[in-house]
Amino acid sequence: MPSRAAACRTIAVVGAVLALALPAVASASLTTAANGPERTGWYPDAPQLSPSSVAAGQVHQAFSASVQGQVYAQPLVANGTLLVATQDNWIYGLDPNTGAQKWARQLGSFYDIANDSTISSTTCPDIQPHVGITSTPVIDSATNTAYLFAKNPGGSDDGYQYNFHAIDLSTGQDRFPPTAISGQQADNTSTHFHAHYQLQRPGLLLMNGVVYAAFGAHCDVDPSQGWIVGVSTSGQLKTKWTTRSNDPGTAEEDSGGGIWQDGGGIVSDGSGQILVATGSNNDGGVPGGGAVSCTQPCDQDPHSGAINGKSQPLPSNLGESVVRLQVQPDGTLRPADFFSPHDAWYWDMPDQDTDMNSGGPVALPDSFGTSAHPHLFVNGGKSGDVFLLDRDNLGGFAGSSYPFTPPNDNVIQRQGTATWPYGPIVSRFAVWPGDGGYLYSVTGWWGGTKNGEFGSGGPLNVYKRVVDGSGNPQLQLVSTTPSTNTPGQNMGYGSSGMSISSNGTAGGSAVAWMVWQANSSGTGAELRAYDAVPQNGQMQLLWSTPIGQGSKFNPPAISDNHVYVGTRDGHVLGFAEPDPPPSTSPTEPAGPGISLTSLKISPHRFAPATKVTETRNGRKRTRRVGGATVRFTSSAAGIVELRVERRTTGRRAGRRCVRLTRHNRRRKHCTLWRTRPGTIRVNARAGANRVAFTGRLRGRKLALGSYRLVVRPAGAQTAKRTSFRIVKLKRRG
Fold first, then answer.
1. What is the Cα–Cα distance from 231 to 25, expressed in whole angstroms?
2. Residue 644's closest CA among 581, 593, 719, 588?
3. DSSP letters spanning 145-177
4. pTM (2 d.p.)
5. Among residues 282, 492, 303, which one has the least CA distance to residue 394?
6. Comparing C-alpha atoms, which of 97, 68, 39, 451 is closest to residue 214?
7. In 3D, which of 116, 43, 100 has the Cα closest to residue 66?
8. Smallest Cα–Cα separation from 184: which of 232, 239, 231, 254?
9. Eight-state DSSP code of residue 347
10. Most confident of 30-34, 181-185, 217-221
11. Residues whose CB is less than 8 angstroms from the CB of residue 469 and which lie 6 or more positions away in sequence, other chains included
12. How far apart are the first and last CA of the chain?
């Protein structure tokens, strides 16, 4: 469960309801994929992203920053810098509020599929045309250092290599020269790391001064294995471990067991503990790489590896499995536990392509457990099955039989959802611990054509945490959205998993965010927000907006009430809602030396903001209407006063316009501005500022009529002015 504290700005405003987009007072952090080593995808420090305010239409696009290359890595935030990495090996440090570029650099050339005679762009649709930085980096906020792996031409492995970088987040420069990843497995010198054929997809893990990266096959081209590589934060290569540690045979026999997890990060549930899910062995075998050898149940102790009472180590080949690795005193990795389904040998056949690791595994919060099973783990794959495992005893391998009758897998629960419309699990799981506990899984169809759409998908499945009569934790399927196989409405192949924002564990505060796309092309992708708690078996869509071309499986990142999305067409988009409120106790210096430019209010005619409920197509929707946006540019940070004045009719008194009284009614009329509505002091930043003005002051709506907004730095004599008019809200229908 994420443990970092929120850095929220919630300051009461006396005299007005205004919101100003300002830099964070205390910088919030998002330093790793899915917001923690458990990979729950839960972001509990977003109190302003409530279901009611999102449904009211208050979400706005704060910025769209152009970058060079496709963005498959989740953006990260630390110490006031938004880190973005692309497949063209470009890295960017951006302002997390405005998207303004602080620095940018390229970490060498990228791997270009068009120049590779072994892997063709026409037969390799997974990621193309370039591969550079694919996985989500990891940041050590204490040292302000970002760690990442980049694929580059060069080196001795068929002309390609992976390089480990430690980046100063303030400047984008390397802390020390890059470390190349090459060589053989730590405990098997005959198994070599082939950077050419490997893809570093899962998010990185930083643990005890070592950065761990997982690898799998690029487009299933042999030879490749599942690897985990550990590099110290000072650049020393500490360990290399592979899921295929047997002596190599042919290229195909020596390949398989890749770790890709839809980009989901390496999981850790404690110091020195690593959990990953692996893919196909490519040989139709059971863990260990051999053929199915028993027609009766093969009982295996998951800790000793004993099968039918015979003691032996854990299998040397750990494809189609969930694997627990333990860091040894010398820094090497040792398998300590595993689980593989009894029918994995069938999944493993070359024509099945039914990886165990396409669901992005998650270590569930302890609130999901019971006294019998306090520590839980969820994994799923292309078979459509959801496995609820006990992290203290993953379950081993229960043996194989055909047809698929008992033995039952040694798991807490296995839910099969392969029958349409539930479909294969092809995006990362996400968790909401509040409201009783929910688990989210996006399904899809990974090939062929459904309803005329290539790579079309299935629904978003939601499971609720329940307890059975024996006191065992269970996952109950409570929602499939949409409920029918509807073209264009399913979660198309490549749609992301969910990211859950909330105000801690407060009930009713959670919103489920995702990047929806209709099919594998990503064209026409949308950022969608759902109420995290389903109603009547369906997730309720609160809000959506187009984002361009979506990146496959890449969920939104959330930090400091902002939602960040990287796209395949080279953009990073930031969304915020509502804007952070202004401070009533400004700490920036007031300044007659500050100058203001470009004052605008839009629209000029508006009604005070309010919420309206409409019924469309039989469904009720609440949204916010009315209000305006004030924009101005400040030459420096400081206190700025926004004074609202109402226009009235006065009478001439010499050169002055004075208040109308019974004694001057016959004098010439003039325009008089009354300051009674009030003055508000806000803490502006240098550069562009935006104020969301609701048309209310002191909690009351402004009366109908004409007004003027006067904006000046505190203590300054000069000011900028613009006019607006409060009108009556026009209701439709």
1. 34
2. 719
3. EEEEEEEEEEEEETTEEEEEEEEETTT--BSS-
4. 0.73
5. 303
6. 39
7. 100
8. 239
9. H
10. 30-34
11. none
12. 47
Strands (E), 328-393: 333-340, 362-363, 376-380, 386-390
The region of weakest confidence among 7-21, 258-272, 447-461, 616-630 is: 7-21
Helix-strand-coil percent breakdown of the chain, rounded to 5? Answer: 5, 45, 55
Cβ proximity of 534 and 481 under 8 Å = yes
At 733, list the tokens: 């229908």
Q: For residue 654, what are the contacts with CB-CB under 8 A and spacing of at least 6? A: none
Query: Between the CA atoms of 229, 252, 257 and 193, what dihedral angle is there, to the nearest 10 degrees?
Result: 0
The token duo for 321 is 């499995």
Q: How far apart are CA 418 and CA 347, in angstroms?
A: 13
User: Are 326 and 336 a contacting pair, CB within 8 Å?
Assistant: yes
Contacts of 51 (CB under 8 A, 6+ apart): 508, 509, 510, 511, 531, 532, 542
For 441-462, the DSSP string reads EEEE--SSEETTEET-EEEEEE
- Picking from 682, 680, 679, the residue whose alpha carbon sits closest to that of residue 588 is 682
Residue with tokens 């689980």: 339
- CB burial string 295-318: b at 16+ within 10 A, e below: eeebbbebeebebeeeeeebbbbb
Q: How far is CA 514 from CA 58, 97, 365, 511, 604, in A?
A: 18, 20, 21, 10, 35
SS3 of 715, please? coil
If you count them, how many residues does the chain have? Answer: 733
Instruction: Report how many helices (DSSP H) and strands (DSSP E) the chain contains, helices first.
Output: 2, 53
Q: Which residues contact 647 (CB under 8 A, 6 or more apart)?
A: 671, 672, 673, 674, 705, 706, 707, 708, 723
Residue 306 has pLDDT above 90, yes or no: no
Pick from 340, 303, 299, 301: nearest CA to 319: 340
Low-confidence winner among 297-301, 513-517, 550-554 (lowest mean pLDDT): 297-301
pLDDT at 252: 43
Closest CA to 319 of 260, 264, 250: 260
The residue to which tokens 């490997």 are assigned: 198
598 CB burial (10 A radius; 0-12, 13-18, 19+) = exposed
**CA dist 688 → 111, 311, 634, 638 (Å):** 39, 69, 7, 13
Q: Give residues with Cβ within 8 angstroms of 121, minimum separation 6.
A: 113, 114, 128, 129
Closest by Cα among 89, 354, 98, 80 to 200 = 89
Nearest CA-CA partner of 382 in 446, 456, 339, 319: 446
CB 140 within 8 A of CB 147: yes
Chain position carrying tokens 């208040």 = 659
Place of tokens 């980046």: 167
Confidence of residue 492 (pLDDT cuts 50, 70, 90): confident
Residue of 638, 648, 710 whose CA lies nearest to 673: 648
| Alpha-carbon distance values, 178 to 108, 161, 230, 233, 411 (Å) | 11, 11, 14, 11, 42
HSE (side-chain half, CA atoms, 13 Å) at 579: 25
- Separation between Cα atoms, residue 601 and residue 348, nearest integer Å: 62
Q: Per DSSP, what are the bridge partners of residue 633?
A: 597, 688
Q: Look up residue 123 and give its two tokens.
A: 């037969």
Grouping H, G, I as helix, E, B as strand and the rest as coil, residue 666 is coil
Query: How far is 364 from 392, CA to CA, in rounded Å?
Result: 13
What is the number of other CB atoms lying within 10 angstroms of the CB of residue 368?
Answer: 25
Q: What are the angstrom distances between the C-alpha of 718 and each of 415, 522, 641, 677, 710?
A: 69, 51, 12, 20, 10
